[in-house]
Amino acid sequence: MSISGAEAEASHELLVIRPSKWTLVVIVQLRSGTMRFNELRRNMGGVPQKSLSQTLRELERDGYITRTAYATIPPRVEYDLTELGRELLALADDWHSFAQRNRRAVEQARRLFDAVDERPAY
C-alpha cells in the first residue's frame, strides 16, 4: 500500500510542528503527574516564561497534555499528560537511552570532524 501525496505531507507536518527545545523537557517533567505552571517552570530551571507558555499551548493543541483551569482566586491551572503524551514520554525515554549509549561515539565523531581543516562545501 503506497502513501498518497496528501498523506505523506500530513505525516511530514506532524514531524515539523515540534519546534520547541522545551517540548520533551515538559513531557518528562509531567511524568510524575499533574503540575502547575510555576511548578513546571521552577523544575525546568532556565526556561523563559514565554517559551514555556508557548510550548504548553502547542502540546495542548496537539493532544499531548491537558490543561485544567479552576475558577479560584487566584486562578489555578494544572497540566497533565494524555495517553498520547505518555506515548511521547516513552519515545523521550528511548531517545535519552540512545543518547546515553552513544555519547562517546558522538563526541569522537565531533572531534574528528572539528579536526579537519578543509571540508568540501555542502
Automatic annotation (TrEMBL):
Domain of life, source organism: Bacteria
Record-level Gene Ontology MF annotations: DNA binding
UniProt domain HTH hxlR-type: residue ranges: 8-107
A Pfam family per the record: HxlR
InterPro entries membership: HTH_HxlR (IPR002577), WH-like_DNA-bd_sf (IPR036388), WH_DNA-bd_sf (IPR036390)
PROSITE patterns (alphabetical): HTH_HXLR (PS51118)
Keywords assigned by UniProt, alphabetized: DNA-binding, Transcription, Transcription regulation
Entry protein name: Transcriptional regulator, HxlR family
Organism whose genome encodes this protein: Devosia lucknowensis
